[in-house]
Design a protein that fits this description.
alpha/beta, 8 helices, 43% helix
Length: 269
């Protein structure tokens, strides 16, 4: 498939072959895209470099998205190697482990600032520095989750960060839309990744998602990857300022019959 032939872009946040960012990168690469990869500091290089090299990446750089000079350096290198680029994938999020446990009301100011800085404000930084090197008709999209609009157990401050991410995306869509650049979010259902396993009670979230989803299953990396391919490609030229849900319909259903039975019977899932 040559849907992305001639398209060039960068993805922030691939860390292993089990994550959503990898699922998106694979779909883009298989469709013909040239992808630049970043990694979060030296310890992550040994994980990311083999993935990037397997996808013939011409750019593999360290980048802390909370440091504007490092983000700027990535896009400067993209401009040097590619000229203009066509897509940017923001797949970066972080919260301190203690802020994903216990009560949200106990979130520290430091934990709040860390989660929102890494997970939400970084999209603003990325967009600001991507804008000058993007082709008209380019696409930027970020990864979010249902915890942005619902109180999900143990998601805590990350839910607030994702809400800020989605709101930021809408303002960025207006700003960059004047140059024909689209900005969107993908809200993926729960996927068993290394990052998600750090969320207390995540295994129960997976089971609950299966019960609630109209399709009766959890979303796969391929499902999310295909949505990423849609947003990065010219198939989505009329889509901006949107949250695209890829969760087998979980967000649209209060509860399935099976889940209501469990709730009413107070059964452990």
């Amino acid at each position: 498939m040559d849907l992305m032939k001639g398209k060039k872009g960068v993805i922030f946040g691939v860390s292993n072959t089990h994550g959503i960012a990898y699922g998106i990168a694979k779909q883009l690469y298989d469709a013909g895209a040239e992808i630049a990869f970043t990694y979060a500091g030296e310890p992550m290089e040994k994980r990311v470099r083999p993935i990037a090299e397997s996808m013939d990446a011409k750019i593999i750089m360290s980048c802390d998205v909370t440091k504007e000079d490092e983000v700027k350096a990535v896009f400067k290198e993209c401009e040097k190697v590619y000229g203009k680029i066509d897509f940017v994938v923001h797949a970066v999020a972080f919260a301190q482990k203690e802020d994903l446990m216990g009560r949200f009301v106990d979130t520290s100011a430091e934990g709040w600032n860390t989660a929102l800085g890494v997970s939400a404000y970084s999209l603003v930084t990325v967009c600001r520095n991507a804008e000058p090197v993007m082709n008209e008709g380019g696409s930027i999209f970020a990864l979010t989750y249902l915890g942005s609009i619902l109180s999900v157990p143990s998601y805590n401050v990350m839910g607030v960060a994702k809400a800020a991410l989605e709101s930021s995306m809408r303002f960025l869509a207006v700003d960059l839309g004047k140059k024909g650049i689209r900005v969107n979010c993908i809200s993926a259902g729960p996927v068993k990744t290394l990052a998600s396993m750090g969320i207390n009670g995540f295994s129960k979230m997976l089971k609950a998602a299966v019960l609630r989803a109209p399709l009766g299953r959890n979303v796969s990396l391929e499902d999310v990857g295909k949505a990423g391919l849609y947003l990065a490609s010219d198939l989505s030229t009329g889509t901006t300022g949107e949250v695209i849900y890829v969760d087998c319909g979980c967000h649209s259903a209060y509860a399935s019959t099976d889940e209501m039975d469990i709730i009413s019977n107070n059964t452990e899932i």
